[in-house]
Design brief:
Helix content is 28%, strand content 24%. The chain is of the alpha/beta class. It folds into 2 domains: 4-136 and 223-375, no CATH class; 145-219, no CATH class.
C-alpha cells in the first residue's frame, strides 16, 4: 500500500508571545526541507521537487488582513532564500494571494510596481485582484473555468461581472463576503436572464450595466497567476480554522484563493464540497503544485479566519507533504480536541470538503494511509 508522506516538525521554543524567531524559523525550514526530500542541500532538495532555474515559482500564501494569522514572513523569506540557492532569481519568486486588500498591513503589502524585492524581502509580491489593465498576471484566465451548479451572485472582480465601478462595489463587498445572506431580498437569488438581459459568449447571463443583484454565474475562472505566470507552485497556508469551510488549510486556501465567484462555496450547507476537490483535480494544479507547507508556527483552532488570540497555540509547527488532504486531515484531528477543551462547537461536517477531496482522489484522509514522519 502506497502511503502519503507527511513530515511534521514542531519546535514551540521558536515562538514567544505571538512572535517568531526568524533565524530559528529558517533553521526549522532548512531541516524540514532536507528531511522531507532526503537531500543534503537546499538546492538539491528543490531540484528533487522538480524546480529548475528557468521556473517562475509561486509561493501561494494566506493573507487575511492580520499580520499574525497570515502566512509568516519569516517562513516565506527562508523559503525564498532556499529557492535562490537552487538557482531561482529573486524576481522569479512570486509571493501571491487573491486580493491585494488583504495584503495591506502585512509584510506582503504590494508595492506600486509589484515587482520590487530587497534583501529582507527576497521575492516580488503579486495578487489576482485588483485587475490591472494590460497586466499579464492579474485577473482570471478566460480559457479555464470550473462549473458548479450552485450559482453565485457576481461582484466586482469576478471575470463575468459587468456594472458599477470598483469603488462603488467595494462598499458592499465586506458585508457580503462575511454573510452572503446579509440584507438579501427574495429577488436577490440566482435567476435566469430577464427579457432585458443578454447572454455572454460563455453562456452565462450578463445584464445591463449596474444590475448587480441579477448577475449570477455557475462558473469560477482560474487566476492567471496559476495558469500563465507560475510554472511551479508551493502552497503555504496558515494553520487556522474557517467559519465557512471549517478549515483554512491546504485545500481551501489554494482552491478558493485561485478562482473568482468563490463566495458561494462558503455558504451554509455548501462548505466547499465538492468544488474544492474538483478544482484541485484540474491538470493545471496537478502539474504545477509541487509541495504543500502548512505554517503552524502559531495555530488558531477557533474564530478564524479573523485573529482571535485566546484560541491560539504557539506550537512552532510545520507540515510538509505532496498530499494536501493528508495535512488537512491531521490538522483537523488536532483542532477538534482543542475546541472541546475550550468549549467550542466541533468543526465536524463544516470541513466536509476534506473527506470529499479524499473521495475524489486528491489525496488521503485515512490515518492508516498516512506515513507521518516526526522530526525533532
Amino acid at each position: 500500500m502506497v502511503k502519503s508522506r507527511v513530515l511534521q516538525v514542531e519546535r514551540p521554543q521558536i515562538v514567544d508571545k505571538l512572535s517568531v524567531n526568524g533565524a530559528a524559523v529558517a533553521q526549522e525550514w532548512h531541516d524540514a526541507l532536507l528531511a522531507f526530500t532526503g537531500k543534503s542541500t537546499e538546492a538539491a532538495a528543490w531540484q528533487a521537487l522538480g524546480v529548475v532555474p528557468n521556473d517562475v515559482v509561486g509561493l501561494k500564501i494566506e493573507a487575511n488582513g492580520s499580520a499574525i494569522m497570515s502566512t509568516r514572513a519569516e517562513l516565506i523569506v527562508a523559503m525564498a532564500k532556499s529557492l535562490h540557492a537552487a538557482g531561482i532569481p529573486y524576481e522569479r519568486i512570486v509571493v501571491w494571494d487573491r486580493d491585494a486588500r488583504f495584503l495591506a498591513g502585512t509584510a506582503y503589502e504590494k508595492l506600486t510596481t509589484g515587482s520590487a524585492w530587497s534583501p529582507d524581502r527576497p521575492y516580488r509580491v503579486a495578487s489576482v485582484l485588483p485587475v490591472e489593465p494590460g497586466s499579464p498576471e492579474t485577473g482570471f484566465d478566460p480559457k479555464l473555468f470550473v462549473i458548479n451548479e450552485n450559482a453565485g451572485r457576481l461582484i466586482w472582480g469576478d471575470y463575468l461581472f459587468r456594472g458599477k465601478s470598483r469603488d462603488q462595489v467595494l462598499k458592499n463587498i465586506d458585508t457580503f463576503a462575511e454573510d452572503p445572506k446579509a440584507g438579501a431580498k427574495k429577488d436577490d437569488a440566482p435567476a435566469s436572464p430577464s427579457a432585458s438581459s443578454s447572454t455572454s459568449s460563455s453562456g452565462d447571463p450578463v445584464l445591463p450595466k449596474g444590475e448587480i443583484q441579477e448577475q449570477v454565474s455557475t462558473r469560477s475562472y482560474v487566476a492567471k497567476l496559476v495558469t500563465q505566470t507560475c510554472t511551479k507552485i508551493v502552497n503555504v497556508p496558515v494553520m487556522i480554522d474557517h467559519g465557512g469551510v471549517g478549515l483554512g488549510g491546504c485545500l481551501s486556501s489554494l482552491a478558493l484563493g485561485s478562482v473568482d465567484n468563490n463566495r458561494r462555496f462558503s455558504q451554509e450547507g455548501v462548505a466547499g464540497d465538492p468544488f474544492i476537490g474538483e478544482l484541485l483535480l484540474k491538470e493545471v494544479f496537478k502539474k504545477k503544485v509541487i509541495l504543500n507547507v502548512m505554517d503552524g508556527l502559531i495555530a488558531q483552532y477557533a474564530g478564524g479566519p479573523d485573529f482571535v488570540p485566546q484560541f491560539t497555540h504557539s506550537i512552532g509547527c510545520l507540515y510538509l507533504s505532496n498530499d494536501p488532504v493528508a495535512i488537512d486531515s491531521l490538522v483537523l484531528a488536532r483542532f477538534e480536541p482543542w475546541r472541546v477543551e475550550a468549549k467550542v462547537t466541533p468543526i465536524g461536517d463544516l470541513a466536509k470538503h476534506i473527506k470529499g477531496a479524499a473521495e475524489l482522489g486528491v489525496g488521503t484522509s485515512d490515518p492508516a494511509k498516512i506515513d507521518l514522519i516526526r522530526l525533532p
